């Protein structure tokens, strides 16, 4: 045998990671007392336990206490008791605790990694080199945020007791993403790991004991969906942070509607892995291996849809097949293993079922010729070709080692296919032409875009999705906001208006010319679809005029016009800023007229009315000025990469405005949305819509492109409901009575749009706190684009 023959015949020898420490830990613990509540280890009140087993063998690992509602209640009570002291403690004190946790984890790094691989089935190389180090970095990074909180987040306070529910695919890392920012912000937590993977969270609770985390600040409860639901529904919890499936995310959105609980959802994905013909194909193959077969594909941001440019598709797929044949499927504790078992038999069956269905729908599924271990929930890496965009494998999150491939002809088609999903978590773009990659990245509807790379994460960089991948970000500055509440100048409770009732209006006195305001859609005044109108009263109960009674069809038209308007989101920030200045200028030219209208309609004094108009002009000026200043950031994670945290418009934003200070509130809500490049469908004050309809001419003379703002007058309750259910509306802001707000949240689950409500209260729009950054932040998505550098 010559050297070359020897080289090709070389086999990997076994390289097992020792597991004795983990086994000793498992043997030494009483898992029937695995609820960490108020600093003590407790059994479930109902005495129940559930089993966690080893995916590589199916063997039982432990019978773990299964929390019920009473246990969740005890945990929330403990967190609430600990909250005042913890949130009042100095940033430095909290930083020291976070740092101590990070350091203690470092000391037990190997144990964490081995336990994670035993419990979840992920290869030890991944838990050892990725999950655990990233989790540790998260705690140490967030120690810094605790100390800079007051300076970096002025006017914010901790949101309170936080309920956190996480999945099984990155048990320790997801725990770190949840607990570190919450503690830094001054919140106390009740966290529930997934029922398949409770072990590293139990070890983490031990670390909390040793690191001096005060009692009740971190409570870790084990259990399944019932325990999760008890956390979500507990009235003592002020925020829910959930990571898991979109299906459960929607249940939680609905369950928390109207509760006033802050909510962040990190859900599923169907991320595109886009390979242009000028990409370094060998690097792209390596990227793809990481993109789809990392953690057996059980990754929310897995690059599960390969889009490859036609000219290189055949060659690329041939390379993938060669590489797939070399992937080593085997024990997760073997350091040479690339692919371990799936987490559980149910997950294995689900993956098999989806592959069978995909094949039925025309996909050709290929697997390398390799043997699977005789026991455990293993599945071979699978490549599906001939996948149509509608195939289940192209649309559904498989959450397994399955890659669906499609080809594209040109850049436009790549973007279109990339966005052809209801999700929007991540994307990966491969091209040696960095200009092209940076041209494509902003056009992909995804919270994270990796250029010539994949699965890069860091504690300083936000991670999170668009659309049905959820809302909110974890990590970095934007992640901190999720655990903080901003002080807004809250106004009175909004009382419900009797639906369908016209305002009591006496006849006009005959001195004014009759005016009926239409709707404003796509840059034109439009008659309402139903041809009904609504009588609007003056403050004295006389008829001031009539407005169109908008309905579902009018909202649909307005949303279509807003979606079709590309000129506004694509305009430069400076351009948008000039238009807003121009709006202010034109409004100021008609200030007296608007002041008189306010007096007539709202009964405001002349002085108050003039002040409201002046403040409206000032606010337009403010947003015109902020348009090109509320910018993203550049992060420098600990690798050869820069991360561009770009501010992007949310998209089409629906706005339902309240009655108080009707000119000022309308401008205070619409201007920040416009400033950030959103297109708007606004429903003005139901009682005083004439202030908004009087703006038509101001808008028409201000160079705002058609469709950038659309105004539909009518009944707030009805129109808010239509906006909430509309799947082409990306964001919805509602200042209306509590019932309308709750319903808007509950009805938003179709596309999981981002909803912001006043929870049944209005704001004092005259306050300077009713303007600026808190509004702009709600008008943007932060997209993190990762750009590696170096040879
Ligand atoms: P899952 O939604 O079934 O469960 C997630 C967690 O929610 C578990 O702890 C579970 O016990 C709990 N739960 C289930 N039903 C509940 C209910 N009605 N109320 C409250 N809690 C409930 O998801 P999974 O199968 O454990 O995890 C896989 C999913 O997680 C995938 O869709 C994946 O994409 C997603 N994920 C997303 C991210 C992200 O950052 N976007 C990260 C990891 C995983």
TrEMBL record:
All copies of the Aldehyde dehydrogenase domain together span 41-487, 537-754
InterPro entries under this entry?
Answer: Ald_DH/histidinol_DH, Ald_DH_C, Ald_DH_CS_GLU, Ald_DH_N, Aldehyde_DH, Aldehyde_DH_dom
Report whether Oxidoreductase shows up as a keyword of the record: yes
Q: Which residues form the active site?
A: 266
Superkingdom per UniProt: Bacteria
Entry keywords, A to Z: Oxidoreductase
- Keyword Glycoprotein attributed: no
Classification via SUPFAM superfamilies: ALDH-like
Family note: Belongs to the aldehyde dehydrogenase family.
Report the PANTHER family cross-referenced here.
ALDEHYDE DEHYDROGENASE-RELATED
Task: Report what the protein is called.
Answer: Aldehyde dehydrogenase family protein
Taxonomy of the source species: Bacteria, Pseudomonadati, Pseudomonadota, Alphaproteobacteria, Hyphomicrobiales
